[in-house]
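hey m, so remember when u said the tokens were messed up on ur end? i reran from scratch. heres the input so u can diff it against urs
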Amino acid sequence: MNILNKSYNYIIIILFISNNLYAQFLNKDVKPIIDFQVKENTIGIEAKAENLLKYSQSLQYELIVYVEDDNGNKSKNAQSDRFVLEPSEIIDVGSVAIRFRNEKAKTIVVLLIKDVEEKTIASKRKVFLGGKLQQGDYDNKITLHKKPVKYTLKNDGVVLKGVVLERTKTKSGRDFHRLFYTEFTKYNFKDKRPILIEELHFRGRTTKIFVKIDNKTIYEFFAQPKTDYLKQHSSMAIKRLYEFFEKKEKNYIVRY
């Protein structure tokens, strides 16, 4: 494997990991859509975005196309731009025409939707072999430096173990995530399900922070920028997390 192929595989791995880390929490606010039509040796791609919220969103899309022909030659093309999505609106954000030489040519199309802080909040992928859409392709092994990496899909994402994911909107949310993660690493929890720190707008400029496991809220509170306040809630959230893991209660929830 030459240096170009290694670099290409590395880029593919980074793309899949960075997006799959949040896959199970993506597509809640925006629905990404990839429509396609195949004519002769050309795949026509239309990328769209649908607002699932009741207020406008300022967003950015990135449409990426990876192509590998039957000779192993690889290429990457990408386009991006900012746009505003009105409530419940569906708009076209980008398009591309992809030519393939034969039925052995592989094409990967990735649509990413990002918020104003350039965090990925929605993603969609389609894989083609020639002009045929492939199903279940992401269970395949991808090799990085000759080491196979196996992804097991669950709800269009990978199964992650022992990680704390972040989906925050303000500095207070990011600070809480940092404080929570620092406390989290001090414990050797046997339960390795991924944890999500999610921040949502509540009233006016107020936001609320949620600590979730398997989309179940185990702790929540209104965000404030004071460090001592965030530290207090971080410790309390860790305590509730410990109790949740110990008791395994299905509907365990504490509100403040």
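this time it looks ok to me. Residues 137-161, 249-254 have pLDDT under 50 and may be disordered. if urs says something different then somethings off w ur setup not the seq
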